[in-house]
Amino acid sequence: MYIKKANFQNFRNFSKLDLTFRPxxxxxxxxxxxxxxxxxxxxxxxxxxxxxxxxxxxxLLRGKEQFFSIKTTTLSNEDISxxxxxxxxxxxxxxxxxxxxxxxxxxxxxxxxxxICFLPEDLNLLTHSPANRRRFLDEVLVxxxxxxxxxxxxxxxxxxxxxxxxxxxxxxxxxxxxLANFGSVITGFRKNLAEFINKRLEDVLSNISxxxxxxxxxxxxxxxxxxxxxxxKLALARARDLQRLTTSVGPHHDDFEMFNERRAIVGYLxxxxxRAITLALKILEKxxxxxxxxxxxxLLDDVFSEFDTKHQRHLLEFLKGFEQVFLTTAHLxxxxxxxxxxxxxxxxxxxxxxSLPRPGEG
Length: 362
Hints:
Layout: E1 2-11, E2 14-20, E3 24-29, H1 36-48, E4 67-75, E5 79-89, E6 92-99, E7 102-103, H2 106-110, E8 115-118, H3 124-127, H4 130-144, H5 146-167, H6 173-206, E9 215-220, H7 227-244, E10 255-260, E11 263-264, H8 271-290, E12 297-300, H9 309-319, E13 324-329, H10 332-335, E14 344-349, E15 352-356
Parallel strand pairs: 3-13, 3-14, 8-12, 12-13
Antiparallel strand pairs: 1-2, 1-4, 4-5, 5-6, 6-7, 9-10, 10-11, 14-15
Helix pairs in contact: 4-5, 5-6, 6-7, 6-8
Subcellular location: Cytoplasm
Domain RecF/RecN/SMC N-terminal: 2-335
GO cellular component, one term: cytoplasm
């Protein structure tokens, strides 16, 4: 899938944008604060209905405007247009969604597109709390499996109901059975994803940072992929759970660690190396979704930061195999010589984006 057109109105610092794109590299260059990340957020929001972590819906409005709109046209097997209209009504944002001109629900809208984004703060995936890593696993699996999405929702509800039962010192058997049922499915999905990543991680990473050697992911399950074993673990923990009023077994305690030559990477590798591993995980996310027949778009924000010239060149060479990739940089001159002839370069200044002609063009 690739984006053919993007139209923005009153989104972030952009009053109006009307842009067309081709497959291949799309480079957005400009100083920090010019709006490069804002533009990627608009594309990400238009294809996923998800905002960047620090954004509230009201913050997407430009200045004191009362509405914003984004329309993107993508091509996979056929053209599909995605339209988002957001209007302030009585101080609250109201969303209207359309695909191919027809008003749709959030669920219907999200079925048609797939997008993956790398942000500088994604390094937190490896260095911050286990919740970040569980969120990564969930985002990947929810994107490709309606069964996982439904099961995760049911598990979350059941976990809350078990918490109420713990507080009331009530019978837990009913909730334990449901928790084991849903939790074992979640654990199975996550375990399979971890195995997929491990089989391909070293190969993908060698195209970005060849000197790292063997890298592996170790998945720590808080429950079990076998329903009966999951239930036994809950039963063994019941007295402790009643005492502490919390559920100590289940995928809400899952985590994973990354190892380099059997040594935990956090506190050991440099930020540039951690960036390379995080980027490799995002690329493996793309490959995993492709194994389910999806064709996700890649958005890479400030991806070259902390990479030397050799790693910048290796990364660009590897990304040539992708149908379309949007990348931002504040230092175009550092990568210009490595860009293929067909790369599209856009200059971002405050409130505008203009195409940089290729050599020989007007």
